[in-house]
Amino acid sequence: MRLLLSSWFLTPDSRPSALPGTLATGQAGIVLNALDEYGRSRARDFARESRTLETFGYTCEELDLRDYFTAPEELPERLDGLDLVWALGGNAFVLARAMTQAGFRDALQKQLHRPEFTYGGYSAGACVAGPDLQGIDLIDDPTVLPEGYLPTTAPECLCLVPYRIVPHWRSEHRETEGAERAAVHLAERGLSHRRLRDGEAVNVHDTTGPVTWPQSS
């Protein structure tokens, strides 16, 4: 499995190196659940991401994790039919709760053996790839609970990289001040993290996760 973890959304003029040049089926599932508290922007954001991914050779569909809140056993089969899961930005805690409630982390583990499969995302979609969301509470509100989300569901992360990702660091973005606070918070506590400016991304061409991570940065 490959990883593509970006601070900001992709643009059609530059294909990230983590996306394989040859695709098995060319199917991408776009995860919009980080936006579940902002329902009005979903169609616009799906259209933008679809246009970009289509230039890379993918056929796009929405992968709504809420469809699996009561049937997580069905999610692994859905992922079997995809080559890319692309998770958008929004609220990282909402996205992490959606992944927990849908059993996404366990389903994703079943794709680790597929060299053509990529998990990717930007902002919140990148943050959830780390060990936890420490520091991200200085950017996103951890108390947001959209309709249909169980209040007892923990915002568990995917543990795919051994560090926390801080997006929008020193960028022209409305969350850059929160990102600066998050980076300082993590550094002061010796917690491993990686700061990403908008336009930067982590490309991992092979991962066998989950990983163990050091406690110092």
Helix content: 10-25%
The biggest sheet amounts to: 6 strands, mixed
Distance separating the two termini: 25 Å
Low-confidence stretches: 211-217
Mind explaining what this structure looks like?
Helix 1 (42-55) links the parallel strand 2 and strand 3. This protein is of the alpha/beta class and 217 residues long. It has helices at 42-55, 75-80, 92-102, 104-109, 124-127, 176-188, and strands at 2-6, 27-31, 59-62, 84-87, 118-122, 164-166, 193-195, 201-204. A 6-stranded mixed beta sheet has the order 3-2-4-5-1-8. It has a two-stranded parallel ribbon with strand order 6-7. The protein is built from 6 helices and 8 strands.
How would you concisely characterize the structure shown here?
This protein has helices at 42-55, 75-80, 92-102, 104-109, 124-127, 176-188, and strands at 2-6, 27-31, 59-62, 84-87, 118-122, 164-166, 193-195, 201-204. Helix content is 25%, strand content 15%.
